[in-house]
Specification:
By secondary structure, the chain is of the alpha/beta class. It has a single domain, classed as Decaprenyl diphosphate synthase-like (Undecaprenyl pyrophosphate synthetase, 3-Layer(aba) Sandwich), CATH 3.40.1180. Helix content is 50%, strand content 11%. A 6-stranded parallel sheet has the order 3-4-2-1-5-6. α6 links the parallel β3 and β4. α5 packs parallel to α6. It is globular and about 70 Å long.
Length: 261
Amino acid sequence: MAAIAELKEHVRRLLYPAYEARMVKALPKDRIPQHIGVMLDGNRRWAKGVGRDSTHGYRAGAANIEPLLQWCEEVGVKVVTLWLLSTDNLNRPPEQLDGLLGVIGDAVEALAAEERWRIHPVGALDLLPAPIATRLKEAEEATRDVDGLLVNVAVPYGGRREIADAVRSLLQEHAERGTSLEELAEVIDVDHIAQHLYTKGQPDPDLVIRTSGEQRLGGFLLWQSAQSEFYFCEAYWPDFRKVDFLRAVRAYAQRERRYGV
């Protein structure tokens, strides 16, 4: 059985590059998502399946981020949002959370060191331990002038928290201007709130991908994903391959976007 599995893997390595190249070539250039949100789910379950601890799963998942960004560049994506840590994840046991935060810090610093992508943390950084928040901010500063793919690093991120933060920021801005609540209530609209989101100034995600077989948003980009297309993949994030990514982009390109109509 082991010999058969090894043979299958060898055949896959030989055939898949050609298959992937054909898939890339066949993608319609005018139907490529400009912004992709990715929920990197399944790291712990993957680790359990191979008999390792959670931190091993987190590191395996982190190793798959750079290939994903390369695949995005290859097909012409301009913005990627990676959900690496939710606000709910902050309630995990300290020994598990510390390992995850360490992996995230290392991964973001490694991405910044490439000087190829512009890193932009999105999330409630004030909820993080000061050292990890500093690492994220330094990665952003180091890549501020990089002319490349914009990579939103969602740490720690929660959609409800983002909307609450946006409304709070909007109220504070108008309070400083001397605008009364009555005056603000008369003019406030969705655009006013959107200007205070973590992703302000960016296009909303065209496509949201979630790995691990789960079919729910869990609070990811609640506001921004109102008109997004969704793609759910059975593979755990560490096993997510280029062919899985291309299938997601192909599925998006084949859909007729109705924007709620």
